[in-house]
Structures are given as C-alpha cells and as structure tokens.
Design a protein that fits this description.
This protein is α+β, with helices and mostly antiparallel strands. It has helices at 2-18, 166-173, 178-185, 194-204; strands spanning 22-28, 33-41, 44-48, 56-58, 63-70, 73-80, 88-94, 98-110, 123-126, 141-153, 160-161. Strands 1, 2, 3, 4, 5, 6, 7, 8, 9, 10 and 11 form an eleven-stranded antiparallel sheet that branches. The protein is elongated, with a radius of gyration of 19 Å.
Length: 209
C-alpha cells in the first residue's frame, strides 16, 4: 500500500510539473461546486474555470475542499479542523461513519558535506501532494516522506491525530467496537494499517454494538 501511495504521489508531482493546473472540482462551504482546473500550494487552493484564466486563491473561509480527477481515479482534499490550529487541507482516504484523513509531507534533504552544499537548495519542503513547485537543483539528495493520519466522525468538530500514542488513542476512539479493540490488542491493527482499521470499523461495527 505504501509503495502504491508513493507511486501515485510521485505521479501526481510529475504531472503537476508538466501541467500547471489539473482538472478539478472546487467545493464551497455551502456545498455548491464548480468544475475547472486547480492546484494546491501549501494550505491554499488555486482554482480557475479555464486553463488560460488566471487562478484565484481560496482558503477555508469560503472553500470546503478540492477534488482532482486524473488517470482514471479521483483524489479528494478537504479542510479539516484541528484543535488549537487553523483548518488544514488534507487528503480524504476513507469515508464513512469515521472519515480518515492523511497529511503527507515530502522532504528532499541534501546529504553531502556542508562544504559542498548550496545553501539555497539544502531542503525542499512539499506540504501536500499538490504543493509548492520547488525544484531540487542537485541530484545528490535523499527523499523522505512523513505522514500523519487523522480520524473524525461527522458530529465531531475537530479531527483526532490517530498516529500519536496509537494504542491509547485508537482504543479510546474505537471503544464502541469490541472487534476493533480486540484486533488492536492482538496487533492485527497497528499504525501501519490504519486505513484497514477504519475501513473495518465502517463496514463491520454496528452503532448499537
């Protein structure tokens, strides 16, 4: 799964370098939407109706999210509220009674000795899949990806970081489903297969269990 995610991640990045904006649909806070071309840079949505138009900037004040369509599949992003922080644009991985969000970052770190480094290209930070188009000018670098997963029920205002202190938080968050708790205790569900855990919960855990 991680290899597939990394492949799609790099595929989208390469595609974004060849095409300024990709086919997308922007969703507004009132649930209305418009089709056009979009991109995500940092925590901001850039969107235009026609490819030749100038893109407008949208934030969580007016926009709910953005959905990309390419290569036969779609990739959805939404602004997610986190306690003590501004809403953050994250990828929607799984939807249901519990929605799973993914916040991914890729770093290109230059591993050469300090004397050989070019200061302005030592680090490139890509906050999301569709992020700032910054190029590493030198090839002797190492790619590092970090990702955090958040879970949120429809009636909850804030999303919960399920990676941090996974065993404690996961058992508390999914306490209403004995099947999930048992799989966490038996280590069938860990922080390495969170998507499987959320999918299992949405499909096999009844609200009146």
């Amino acid at each position: 799964m991680k290899l597939l995610i990394r492949f799609l991640f790099l595929l989208f990045i390469n595609y974004s370098f060849s095409q300024d904006y990709r086919q997308a649909r922007i969703i507004f806070n009132d649930s209305s939407s418009i089709e056009g071309f979009g991109e995500i840079k940092g925590n901001t949505i850039y969107f235009k109706v026609l490819q030749e138009d100038k893109a407008d900037k949208w934030s969580y004040d007016f926009a709910k999210g953005l959905t990309f369509a390419a290569y036969g599949f779609s990739e959805k992003y939404e602004y997610v509220k986190i306690e003590h922080s501004k809403p953050k644009l994250m990828q929607v991985v799984e939807e249901g009674k519990v929605t799973l969000y993914r916040d991914a970052k890729i770093y290109f770190a230059d591993n050469r000795p300090e004397s050989e480094k070019f200061k302005e290209t030592a680090l490139v930070h890509l906050p999301n899949t569709h992020s700032d188009k910054l190029f590493q000018k030198h090839v002797s670098s190492m790619e590092t990806m970090t990702e955090t997963f958040y879970v949120k029920r429809e009636n909850e205002e804030f999303a919960t970081d399920i990676i941090f202190s996974f065993n404690i938080r996961a058992k508390k968050y999914f306490a209403d489903c004995k099947k999930v708790i048992e799989k966490i205790k038996n280590k069938k569900f860990t922080k390495k297969n969170i998507q499987d855990m959320v999918f299992f919960y949405n499909e096999y855990c009844d609200e009146d269990e």
